[in-house]
Model the fold of this input.
Amino acid sequence: MGRAEARRAQKKGSARSAKGKKPKKTGIRRFFTWKKLLAYFFGVIALGVGAFVALYLYVDVPKDGKHAAMAQATIYKLPDGKVLKRDGEFNREEVVFSKIPKNVQNAVVAAENKDFWDDSGVDLMGTSRGILKTVMGEGKQGGSTITQQYVKNYYLDQRQTVSRKVTELIISLKLKNKMSKEDILAGYLNTSYFGRNSYGVQAASHAYYNKELDKLTIEESAYLAALLQAPSSYDYATASETGKKLVTQRWNYVLDKMVEKNWLDKSKRQTMKFPMPRQPKLDSGLKGQNGYLYTLAKAQAEEILKKQGKTLSAGGYTITLSIDPKKQEQLEKSVKSQLWDKMDPKARKVDGHVQPGAVSVDRKTGHIVAMYGGKEWRTHQISNATREDFQPGSTFKPLIYASALENGSKTQDGKPINANTVYNGDSERQVQGPNGPIGYKPPNEDDVNYGPQTVEESMMKSINSAFAQMAVDVGLDKVKKTATDLGMNNDAPDFGAHPAMALGSMGQSPLHMAAAYATLNNHGKKVTPSIIKSITWKGQDVDLDNPIGGDAISRGAADGVTAILKSVVQKDGTGKVVRSDNYEVAGKTGTSDEDRSAWFAAYTPDLTTVVAVYGEDGNKHVPLYGAGGEPRVNGSGYPALIWNAYMSKALGDDPTAKFDLDTENGAATAPAPLPPSSAPPVTTAPTTPPPSTTRPPSSPPATKQTPSKPGKPSGKETKPTKPSKPSTPNTKKPTPPDTGGPGGPGDPGGPGGPGDDDGFHLP
Done:
């Protein structure tokens, strides 16, 4: 046998000897067999169970509720150290279980833990989920039972840590053997925070309905139960429109759960109406603007802490506001000199209906440096700076243009929309969609026809017909998205993607309009105005969200809007009253339907300020014709005058304050072309609107005007009501037969002097 054959024979022998044996695992694979993985799994479970048993034996139920006894005040102060408010005199009145009506018991159990009477006192899945979220840094996770919430309220603190959650779980398990369900529920109801500085359901009954606990109706009991989810935000008397909507939904949820548990008859449930709580008792220390500043700071602090799984009711916080005392003083003085000093309610009834509001934001930090909520918080607790029920009018138009630039939009005939794009500015011109007329033809202020106008000229003169067409060209959904991306409140009343949106027919607050304009001023980077500079708890800083976020829109689009808004002020636009030689200004006026609200929203390179003046008579929105002795109130009037008086002092005389714009869409380079010589002769739009189309100089129109809600258009097109016209010639030109976008014969006209603004009638 040769050597080759010998080697082959040897290999065959080796193969036979190895047959039937698996190769030996090497490296890390030898630690991960199925048997070993199962052993590891059960080992981890055993360790976890062992650790839990050890903790269960180690942790005892505390003898006293130390947290409740040691609750500290929360302090609200200005940067200079001045204290606005101390939330520390806790209003708590304990009541034994036998004195708690069944209605209240059932409502709270239905709201918070419908299986309370039968459960073990803990929600293992919810608590495990909460621990996992805490470990992952994702904040609070719901799922606690009433027993667990009572343990947290009475024995522990509000920190969201793993150790606190585990301790809560163990005490809750042990508590069911030491206390009856009745005593646990009574303890929970006596330690829970209901808002209005009320701790415990008895105090809450007096705070909201001014009655003893046993006198509460089922509806009222359900409202108090609903408050437990968000006490301050759900106070219906002072809540935002969103808060009112949410607490109403929560109230309905509580009653439905009571029906589900057979604690409430279904037929009786169907007849129940929401029980309006009384107005909150006034705090004598919150005079002037302090109440408005405190209320917003408290609401924003609660939102910040809620995201972190904490609660303001725990007490012990120091909240420093971002308000600049000097700027705040200047804003208050400006409102007084430019508005209140000109009002005389005894001589003119309408003067008693005037309500101003303002917000001033540092666009670099996002901090609110000054705010005006009303003349006196103790007599008018609705903040005019944050209320969402008045229309912003034409201050919305720059956001339409911002959307056009951001989306690279074109007119109906395919021309890019920029400052030089020409639109037909005739009043009541039919808005054209891709498939023809859409059944919407808004009038211009005083029915003035402007003919062909560039976008810049349309912004300067605030031409309704041009921007209604532009909004449709861009796409109403896109316009709304851009507006909310910039900072407008998507949940405000009647903020729908309908044609009237182009004229600012939705509800909105100065706070949210300041957010949108500050974002434009900040080159498109999102600004979410915050009144809170810092929060500390027992000397430790609480993490705050940065008011300056990422890009809401591109810098080119934002700076393009700023360029055109500079023309509204620097050229002969509706904002020219605030023109300054010391600093640049970009801004826009706004006046809502029938002069129920007037706005001026504008900014310098550093500071964004929005001022609004409303007409309010109780719960009604009313016109402001004749207020202060003026024929009408518009954005270029009191709001712009307040803005100018405040900003000139707040900024000082800094001639170096210039906008740093980086955009391909600057101001227009040329006016709109004149009508071609072949066009029929037309009458030039007047410099001052004729008597036939202006509102009377000192009184509202003779025809009865019914106050309207923020304008959602009906499906039917109706012509707006106008004052009767004398026999003077009408300046209105016939609408040229073109379709959409630019074009059409006409005369550019002019803005029409300081009284000419941008009010509108909703169809």
About this structure: DSSP finds 21 helices and 19 strands in the chain.
